[in-house]
Design brief:
about 200 residues, two-stranded antiparallel ribbon, about 20% strand
């Protein structure tokens, strides 16, 4: 059953979800370039654009080392993606002549990933963000400098039928819901309703 928003939004926002069943078919350059172009235009504090992306395509010279970074259960399904993307964010930024920590680096990289995911969906491709992977090994094997945070890995691919997916994941292979707005948006303090007619979520 399609997701139903509680308030009007563009269909894109409820149509995007994170399947695990992928066809492993090659992802064209123009699809990746459009998705990364969307990421490029994400909001960024002081226009620093701290995000960086490392890409491996299914079967290329980097593919196996990317797959091996994943937690064993994630390998069962993400190994069938068309590409895996490691998201990094630059730790430091220059402000007023001083090099300081970029406190919004993860926030901004998250905005870029969201743009990537939505543009991919518009082109008929799905994405799935992955937090279950070995960050220490990723830094070592992918030669990521210490001045970059390793944020996440993203799988992108065409959605396949559930029969191609390991049985352990069948029950979860459908769009999930979201908690209601009155449990996430508050007036000045947690527990204070922000909107007339919304119940108090405290």
């Amino acid at each position: 059953m399609p997701r139903q928003p509680d308030h009007p939004v563009a269909p894109l926002f409820v149509d995007r979800w994170s399947p695990r069943s992928f066809t492993a078919e090659p992802v064209p350059d123009d699809v990746l370039l459009s998705a990364f172009e969307a990421a490029r235009w994400a909001p960024s504090a002081s226009n620093v654009q701290p995000w960086r992306f490392l890409v491996a395509r299914h079967g290329d010279a980097h593919w196996q080392e990317f797959v091996e970074l994943l937690a064993p259960r994630n390998r069962l399904w993400a190994g069938q993606a068309s590409a895996l993307v490691v998201i990094l964010s630059a730790f430091w930024v220059e402000r007023q002549g001083a090099v300081v920590e970029n406190g919004s680096r993860s926030f901004d990289a998250g905005a870029a990933w969201t743009n990537f995911a939505h543009q991919a969906l518009l082109l008929g491709w799905h994405t799935h963000g992955i937090g279950g992977f070995d960050r220490i090994a990723a830094r070592e094997r992918l030669e990521v400098p210490e001045d970059y945070s390793i944020e996440a890995i993203v799988a992108i691919g065409r959605q396949a039928g559930i029969d191609t997916l390991h049985a352990d994941f069948h029950a979860a292979e459908s769009p999930n819901g979201r908690r209601p707005i009155d449990q996430t948006v508050f007036a000045g303090r947690l527990g204070l309703s922000a909107f007339t007619g919304e119940r108090n979520a405290a």
